[in-house]
Every structure is written in structure tokens, then in C-alpha cells.
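# step 3/5: fold
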Amino acid sequence: MINALNPLYKPPTRHMLSNHFVPAWYNVEKQNVKSALEKASKVAITSDGWTSICQDHYLTVTAHYITEGRMQQNVLVTKAVYRAQTGDVVAEEIGDVLDEYGIREKVSAITVDNAANMDVAVKKLHIIKIGCFAHTLNLAAQTIYTLNSVAKWAAKIREVVVWMKRSSMAKVVLREKQDLLKIDKNSLLLDVKTRWNSLFLMIERFLQQHSALQAASLDPRLRKPMERDRLSKLTNEDYRKAEEFIELMEILYTSTLCASNEKSSTCGQVLPILQKLKNHFTVRDGDSLFVSCLKKTIWTDLSKRYQTDQVRNFLGEATAMDPRFKHTLEEEDAEEDKTVWSRIKEKILAAHDPAETEQLTEPGVFGKEGRKQTDEPRGEESEESEDETVSLQTRKKMKLTPLEKLFAEDDILKLNTIKRVAAAAPAIKIRAEKELEMYKALPPALTSEDPSAWWWRKRDVYPLLSDLALSYLCVQASSTPSERVFSTAGDTISTERSRILPEKADMLIFLFKNC
């Protein structure tokens, strides 16, 4: 075909693609990522580890930042590491990545799983650590496996699911019964302890297909009647527990989906979701023994999370800066709400006071070069006239263009006008207080609202708050961005491509995720 279209064209060889084109493309895109991160005022990162089919251990780092009201994310690296992944080693490896991209001083926080080596690494890096919220919810859900009542009850349902999944004829019969009963043609699911919410999904699918399962178990084409009798051994009490389990655990499943969302999973959601979970898992009168036992077990584990002052304060401020949830702190604890707003005000003053001072001091005009230093008190008029005279003399000594020489006196008047306007402008403290009062008085935004886009639209009304909001909105609630990178890595380093070099794999993953 190629010869017929153009006999002179020679397609690139595998060697040319692998050793020249891909690296050249990678270098260009990497420079583009560096340029984008250089423009970002604040950056949040996630990190995680993964072992490939070749038993090579990989560390990935992703960066998240906001540009013009849009959340941006880039995969910085997915590199093979060959040292024991202790906390010190992981800290060094992540630090090297941050230095390579020049964002070490811009990092607001890092979101990682709850592994001990990550705790040590983050402390070494002196970065605020946000534990992966999705992983935290899964750990809480896994605690119910330790309950004997749940383990025995779930085992009965699991046996039925395993029996149906092992038989090819059972699948055919089940599909026929689904058609007959007009039930969704879904396969049964088997739970895996390490897979998020798998027990909930197994029980939910079992209840959904229960009528089809009963009809299938009576079909004469299915053998092993002793095995299928297990379905009849499930009592009404077991079915009641299944219904109660689904009703109770659905909120935990939904919360995991919220924390794992690819587009809007910011850390400002963590405390509001925890507040909802606390209300849901509070034991109430009328709860059965089964339900109350589940509630106590799950909330006992969740209540231990995010309790350090540094993390709690950061999440409180992130919640306040999220226009969808800013009211939830006041509803939960009025005193904590006041403390959060006070810290936000202090951060605004710390961030803008030095900048404003430098802005109002014109180098060579209103600074040391443009004003004589004297200990004698001076009036406003003499001070202004001296500023003008000295500034004019200073400008005359400077090398000016002909146009600047012609309008030198006019420029001095303009500079003095700028100074008077700046002096008359409200102090940064007053502006911060006014913005905070206006923002707190606004009704909360709908949960469908994108908080980054909301602040971008309001940047002229709340210039101080909108700048500060970037420090929180870019921080991820979970480390699922890194998990998604490893899904891509699994496709890249597959059984058929198991001999691919780790350096080439890093380039391919980088290009796939960033282009």
C-alpha cells in the first residue's frame, strides 16, 4: 500500500521509533509540563507504589494545579526504583522529582495511602500529608469482616455465588430466567477482601438477581442438587440482613465514588462527608442488633482518622474555601468555625502584606535612592515636595529616552498620584475582613458546582480569597490519580511486552497520560 501511494517513502523502523522519535516527543512534552507548572502558583501532588508483572517496583508522582478556573493534572514520573522503599528512600525519590520540575516550594499538600513508609517520607519532606480518603473508607468497610455474625452470614451468600459462577450451564440457565422475569442481565459478583466495596456489590447484585437465582436453582438441567440446596438454606433472617446491609452500606459506597472522582475530588469534601457518615452510623433506637453492631464497628474505625491538628486544620480551611461546603463547619461546631475563619484571615495577611509593601515602594523613587534619610520630623507637604524634587533629580541623572526626557515632570506627577491612591486604598486587613464577611454571607453553591470555576468567576469580587483558594482546591481527596496511572502501566508492561525497559515504559506512560 505504501509503495503504491509513494514508492520513495520509507516508514520509520522500530529502532528509530523507540530510540529517537519517542524520546524526542517525550522531551518536548516534558518541557511543556515544566512550563505549565512554572506558571502555577500552588501545586498538590499524589504518589503511590506499584509492582509490575516483571516484579519491578515503580513509584509514580502526579501533580495537580488550577489554571483559569480549571483543574489540571499531569503525571510527572513513573520510574522503576531498586532500593528498599523505606521512608527515607521514598522521601529522597519524591524530592528529586519535585526538584526536577521546580515545584518543591509550591507544594500545598501530598495525598498518599496510609502506608507507614509514606508517613515517614512526608515528614522528611515537610509537606502536609492527606491520607487517601477512599483508602480510609475501604479500611473502615473491611473491619466488618472481623465480625463473626457478618462472616458467617456473608459466607452463605458467597457459596451460592461461587456455585453459580463455576458452572457454565448455570450461567446459561440464569440468563434464560433473567429474560423470562425481565431482570437486568447482570452476572453475579464475588467479593474480594482487598477490593473496595466488593462485599457491598456482591450482596447488592445477589438481591437484585434473587428471583432469577431461585428460578434457576429449580431447573432440571442443573446438577448437584445438594449444592443448589444451599440457596434454600438461606432463611428469611438472612434476606432481612442483606436488605439492612445494603441500606446501611450504600452511603459508604457512594462516598468512595465521591472521593475517587477524577474531576472534582478535592480535600474540601472530606470533613462534610465524614459529618454525613457520622450521622448515618450513629446508633439509634429501633436499630437491630445486626445494624447497630455494623455501625459501631465502622464508625469506631473512621473516628480515629484525620485527628492530628495539622491535618484537621488544613481540612477545615479547605472546607471553608469550598463554596459548596463552607456552611458545614458552622453547623457542626460554631467555635471551630470561628477558629477556621481566623486562620484564613491570618494566611491572607501573611501572603499579601509583604507584597503590598513592596508594591507601594517604588525602587529609585520612593525608596532609599529617592529620599534623604533624616531623623527630623517632616510635614506631609514638605515630604511630598521633597519626594517630587529628589525624584525629578534622580530621573534626570538616569539615562532616559528622548520621550522620557520630554515628559519627565509629567511622569513624576503620575508617580506621586499613584502613591497617594495607594495610600488612600483600604488596608489589607480591612479588605480581607470585608471579603470574608461577604463570602460567608453568600448562600452555599450547589454540589454540582465546580469550586475552581466558581472562584475564577468571582476573582474580581474576592481577589484575596480567590488567590488563597488555589492552595486548597488543587489538593486531592484520594490518591486514585496514581492508581489510574498504574492501570495504564499494567497495559503498557503487559505479558506480551514484559521485556520493555523501565525507562521506555516511563516515557510511554508519561505521553499517554499527558498528551
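# step 4/5: annotate
Strands lie at 43-51, 57-67, 70-81, 107-112, 128-131.
# step 5/5: archive (pending)
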